[in-house]
Hints:
By secondary structure, this protein is α/β, with parallel strands linked by helices. The longest helix is centred in the middle third of the chain and has 23 residues, at 107-129. Helix 1 (16-27) packs across helix 8, helix 3 runs parallel beside helix 4 and helix 4 runs parallel beside helix 6 (156-177). 46% of the residues lie in helices and 13% in strands.
Amino acid sequence: MSLTGKHALVTGGSRGIGRGIVLKLAEKGVKVAINYRQDKAAASDTLAKVRERGSDGLIIQADVSRPEDVRRMLKEVQAAFGRLDIFVSNALGEIFTYYRPPLEITPEQWDRAVDSQAKAFLVGAQEAAQLMGKGGRIIAITYRPAGLTGGWQPYVAQGSAKAALESLVRYFAVALASRGITVNALSPGVTEDSVLNALPQAVQDGLRAWHLAGWTPMGRLGTPADIGNAVALLSSEEAGWVTGQVIAVDGGASLMNPDFTLEIQRG
């Protein structure tokens, strides 16, 4: 499964899950454009780690919630690489600026969520597809439970934006199939070194305890490297018949049944 000579753009690639994706692609021989919004130092550090792995790339500042920034970013990628083989829409946005329950969230806060997720993917995929030939890969990072459930009340804007993002994945998959470009989404479970780290410590501790107790059958939380491995798999030539899918990368957590206690499910 060689990706040597490919070129990728990863939004939100300077830290967390994005960094895990960038580094795994670099290990496979991919040159990577690393998008960041504010933390240039983190992006530069990630690029240094890319070079330690024998690959290369560049860093690009852009706020993906702004269509003009997305278009400029893709023009910079074209100038640097000439083409694009892999586009990973991963940037999360400023989630805690719209972390409000449905009876309190404002239309402006709602727009921030949609702009940073669904609209960012819409514009990014449109622009990226123009730089791709047959075998191109477009991959979105989502969180599927947020679009299927309603219990995590302050997540209503992000959950709705992720649901729209997943719908776009299916539409783009059909639109680009004739060109040999696949479009898929990956849905990580609870992952170390991610947005999890921004939650209150008590919440982090509770989540870890819950998943280690059995909610994740494989007995641990995910890591950015786990998500990077899944991106590399979908980016391979061998994955050319997989498109329009939302694939859970969660150690089996999505297989558990919330109607029954862990004790009953474990038998």
